[in-house]
């Protein structure tokens, strides 16, 4: 939806000029600001349906359901295959802003804040073995880590990040650290990949594909 | 509450041994896992009061209110001075886990997901001028950035982060990029500090204190 | 010579144990310390021939010449194709140590310190256009940069490094900075690649090969 | 000599404009290119004296000796206190370029390439205990490391660097790795500081000063 109009360019550019032209820069990618108009239209039109969701997972599936049949986005693919997407920080996004916009006009939406936490921990408990692939750090990594802590420690783990352990944050923490917490099994197989995920992930995917 | 029992040590250590001793490692800091017992007691005892909160900001003030008068934590200080704390990803935390634990036992809590977004944007709109200090990146940085985008662009900005623009993420993005989005004024004064915030922030604080 | 006996392993390992087994660790690569014995033998046997070199470039070609015909090392390939290798910090290497060892026994070698500088500047002056590919930073990058400063600025430049401009050193300096010095042409085409060169270089090589 | 005319500014600047004004940029420092004129004069005038040096250590002491009595530079201070400065990559510097310039005019200078290696290894052998402080990586770090390998392993080590072990290079290598090589004692006290040295070094200096 939003990203289909994203353009690639160079990072060294005049941001004042871009602002005048209503182009939003994301390092070396460029997005016309009017994507927000289409986004707003979508949320205005579909808000009643969307607000039937009781939690974030359901909310994201409803968006996936609404997308055209041939759409190949993550949300459509997840909906089609009933793969849950947990997104605890959804209010920190363009989607969050759109919901805020509708609520300003008096619309209501009430998503269960802690339902996802329930689902992700259940998912881990009910699995025979757990394995994780972290693409980057931040909230997504930590959210999975704490689910593992309170369910079943991971037997397999891959982490792709440009952050490093020495700064002490969760994003860069070595997977091994998780052994102390019970997030990672003491016999787990794991590897920390310190690399931009847009470089490392396709290489890993190609290597896996070659073998199977 | 939790951190008072945190110990400093060395990062190079046997995590299997730590796990056996119920010590959780955070790089070179060590936390006895039983802090969760105290935390659980607190939430069990106070859940009814806490669940009166209608949104995250109120919820965090209620915790602050409950803390002992002499407590010098961030939550107590913020409550005392009526400084709002916005925390969109609260379910991704030990607090989130404690609430989940209480809900498993049938307790209810319903925090307005998008109220904070409303408050933070209002705060920016109603200010004569806006300025930001980002300590690290992640959700906190982006949440403030999107509030600025939909209100008043910042006239002053400081960013302390170990992440860099070239990986393309929000955490490492140069403040200047915000000019294209309208998050930063085109005449803003700003500086990107690429350093561990635990080193840079005290130095900045000391320099500011020396001058005023 | 030296690297043929290098083994790959894991970085998390007991260095005291390795020391006892006479294995030298280079992050996740392992080298039996007795490679130095073979190296010492080579230098002992060939020192008279090697000491005929008047400068470092000649010295490295003589080693290349001595290597077996089928050898595919960089030194052999460079000798075969008469490609000069400039190595201003040669005393900071295993080769340097071997020469020092021979000199302790009274042998003599006198390499012109500044001849390479002469050659590399000449090479740039006599080229119609200059282009550079920096794989990593350090002395090699700066040595080429200063040659460009005193001859012909580069029209093309690629830099692959994990270092970044913000720390202020030469290794991480943005290529663009070279325009101020006259090291890079103001109309040059250039790109800074912030990535481990062992990942980025093969990808670039494959992409170039695919196109030609 | 050179640095006294260095100015501080901002990294975001037009390098083409700087080039036109003959200002050389080093990230956010700016140097008028005509410092090279003063440098050239110095070398032209003093070359006969300088060329009496038999190796790099002597050469640097002679420069130190020539500097005005009140000069507080590193070279003057080192000369005054007879502290050897080992600089294996001296041809990779403005000094190297100046010597090259004089040699173009037929002057001669012959510095023993491997004498410093001899001196630094001797220094380590003759010490009761060895300790090292690496400020940054590159040739200086490795040159000291290989001296330790062939003499007495370090009992104390501090490393300040922004580079990290995971990229596999010498600059970022964890000090612990040196235990396998015999560069660091297995009972050594050591610490790796991952921080810009211009931030960390003054803090360490202040902390040491406070204690003694």
Could you please describe the fold and organization of this structure?
Four copies of one chain form a homotetramer. The first copy, chain A, is an alpha/beta fold and 212 residues long. Chain A has helices at 15-20, 35-50, 56-66, 74-80, 94-104, 115-125, 138-149, 177-181, 197-211, and strands at residues 7-8, 23-26, 29-32, 131-135, 154-161, 184-194. In chain A, helix 7 (138-149) links the parallel strand 4 (131-135) and strand 5 (154-161). The first copy, chain A, starts with 6 loop residues before the first strand and ends with a helix. Chains C and D meet through helix 1, strand 2, helix 5, helix 6 and helix 7 of C and helix 1, strand 2, helix 5, helix 6 and helix 7 of D.
